[in-house]
């Protein structure tokens, strides 16, 4: 199989970074196709932890080429910090990072607008964004007034930065937010353009040439299906398409060139930020999952909300993305849970069942999750290297999840490190 799309199936943080790192061994080019530095993808190699926000998680394999695709919103300063972090830690970046000339840039005023917008929302309307300027940047992209990476090379770039900063200051004033320093902004972007110009690439040609040469391309999604602007729990979503369709529009690789779709899904559920979460646990069990799973945001450090596995979400993600293989993660987090619950449907006041995620979020207020229970295996799984050696109850749990959501199990992850990965035909 040559070209693979990898997406998150839940509300993000499913362990995409780890799975990308594992699959990169078989790939040549790794492409991030949407989102920005709101993402935090953790990879652990030889005991060292790396958190990547913009650069594809394939960067930790020497020699692999990494592309920031046209669908990404790229903050130049975050990217420079990330490149610096990798260099300091001895990761070769020279000639390995390519930024699409068509990608939009998160400008510093987008971050200011993100913060100002959140501050103005009433408590029940706050999204709990990561504050990385994502919504305002995609807003400008769709509104056709954004800055693209290729614009940094144009002679009028700094004049346009000046003009946009002045216009934004007028907007910020109406939002009771402090103005930006125009001269500092121009200086910042002069320096960013200077340092980043060597990375700017016609990514559409680059990716399609690689495909023509028979190279294997791995398309790395950020966030997750339930945070998708179209398919997620709108308005409590991000502003891009983290689902499989977004991989084609965000890279310029045709859907006809895609060979398989991998969905990354946790053996339970988490969410960071506001919005509905039917299987959320507000009790000691939720605390235990957070503790065992280290469920704190890789980008913002916020505690993640935790809950039981939701097969309604899993089934929905299978449909929307056309998942061929599941990469199921964090089984080990349930090692000491005596009784595990699985949500199979949502049930309304009059007994009506919802087996597909509803568009109308108010339906969820009138529903409760229907659970089935399974016995936990109560033993450690992290040292296990073959699927056959897992406790029978652990296998039964995993197999039940796959049965409920459809598709095939391709990877089972039993720990954060590269080695703690059971591969089953993927
Ligand atoms: P991503 O955003 O989907 O890449 O996921 P994050 O990196 O934000 O969060 C996943 C967290 O779980 C990271 O801290 C990973 O190191 C960790 N992780 C990934 N897979 C496993 C696993 O199978 N078991 C355990 N215990 N941790 C895992
Ligand atoms: P990875 O790639 C989890 C959430 C935010 C917020 C909503 C909108 O690491 O899985 P935004 O800053 O995008 O405007 O915030 O989306 N969110 C994520 N949650 N993992 C992520 O990325 C996320 N990126 C954004 O918490 O609820
Ligand atoms: Mg993350």
Gyration radius over CA? 22 Å
Percentage of residues in strands: 15-25%
Number of domains: 2
Just name the CATH architecture of the largest domain. 3-Layer(aba) Sandwich
Bound molecules: guanosine-5'-diphosphate, 6-O-phosphoryl inosine monophosphate, magnesium ion
Poorly predicted tracts of residues: none
> Helicity, in percent?
25-40%
Strand order of the largest sheet: 9-7-5-2-10-1-11-15-19-20
Large-scale geometry: globular
Largest sheet: 10 strands, mixed
Secondary structure class reads alpha/beta
Figure out the total of helices.
Answer: 12
How far apart, in Å, are the first and last alpha carbons? 9 Å
Mean pLDDT across residues: 97
User: What is the CATH superfamily classification of the largest domain?
Assistant: Adenylosuccinate Synthetase, subunit A, domain 1
CATH topology of the largest domain, by name, is Adenylosuccinate Synthetase, Chain A, domain 1
Quick one: how many beta strands? 20
Explained architecture:
This protein is an alpha/beta fold and 426 residues long. The protein is built from twelve helices and 20 strands. The chain has helices at 16-24, 76-88, 108-120, 134-142, 157-174, 182-196, 203-212, 244-249, 284-293, 311-321, 362-365, 392-405; strands at residues 4-8, 29-32, 41-45, 48-52, 65-68, 73-74, 97-100, 104-105, 200-201, 217-220, 260-266, 269-271, 305-307, 309-310, 325-329, 339-348, 353-354, 367-375, 408-413, 421-423. The strands form five sheets. The protein has a ten-stranded mixed beta sheet with strand order 9-7-5-2-10-1-11-15-19-20, with helices on both faces. Strands 14, 16, 17 and 18 form a four-stranded mixed beta sheet that branches. A two-stranded antiparallel ribbon has the order 3-4. Helix 3 (108-120) crosses helix 4. Magnesium ion is lined by residues 12-13, 39-41, 298.
């Amino acid at each position: 199989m040559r070209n693979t799309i990898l997406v998150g199936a839940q509300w993000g943080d499913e362990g995409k970074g780890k799975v990308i790192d594992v699959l990169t061994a078989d790939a040549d080019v790794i492409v991030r196709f949407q989102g920005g530095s709101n993402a935090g993808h953790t990879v652990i190699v030889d005991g060292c932890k790396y958190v990547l926000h913009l650069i594809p998680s394939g960067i930790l394999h020497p020699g692999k080429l990494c592309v920031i695709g046209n669908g990404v919103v790229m903050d130049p300063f975050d990217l420079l910090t990330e490149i610096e972090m990798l260099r300091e830690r001895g990761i070769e970046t020279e000639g390995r990072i390519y930024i699409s000339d068509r990608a939009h840039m998160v400008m510093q005023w987008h971050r200011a607008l993100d913060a100002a917008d959140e501050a103005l929302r009433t408590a029940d309307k706050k999204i709990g964004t990561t504050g990385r300027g994502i919504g305002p940047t995609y807003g400008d992209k769709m509104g056709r007034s954004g800055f693209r990476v290729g614009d940094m090379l144009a002679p009028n770039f700094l004049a346009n930065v000046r003009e946009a900063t002045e216009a934004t200051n007028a907007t910020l004033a109406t939002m009771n937010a402090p103005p930006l320093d125009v001269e500092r902004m121009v200086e910042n972007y002069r320096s960013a353009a200077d340092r980043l110009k060597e990375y700017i690439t016609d990514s559409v040609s680059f990716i399609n040439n690689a495909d023509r040469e028979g190279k294997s391309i791995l398309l790395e999604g950020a966030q997750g299906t339930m945070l998708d602007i179209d398919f997620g729990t709108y308005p409590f979503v991000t502003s891009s398409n983290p689902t499989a369709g977004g991989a084609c529009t965000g890279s310029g690789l045709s859907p006809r060139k895609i060979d398989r779709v991998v969905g990354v899904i946790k053996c339970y559920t988490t969410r960071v930020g506001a919005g509905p979460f039917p299987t959320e646990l507000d009790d000691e069990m939720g605390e235990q999952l957070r503790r065992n799973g280290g469920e704190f945001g890789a980008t913002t450090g916020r505690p993640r909300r935790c809950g039981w596995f939701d097969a309604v979400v899993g089934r929905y993600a299978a449909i929307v993305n056309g998942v061929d293989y599941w990469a199921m993660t964090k089984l080990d987090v349930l090692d000491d849970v005596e009784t595990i619950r699985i949500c199979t449907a949502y049930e309304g006041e009059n007994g009506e069942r919802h087996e597909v995620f509803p568009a109308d979020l108010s339906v969820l207020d009138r529903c409760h999750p229907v659970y089935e229970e399974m016995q936990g295996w109560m033993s450690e799984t992290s040292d296990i290297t073959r699927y056959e050696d897992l406790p029978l109850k652990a296998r039964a749990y995993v197999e039940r999840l796959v049965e409920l959501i459809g598709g095939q199990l391709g990877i089972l992850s039993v720990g954060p490190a590269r080695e703690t990965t059971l591969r089953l035909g993927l």
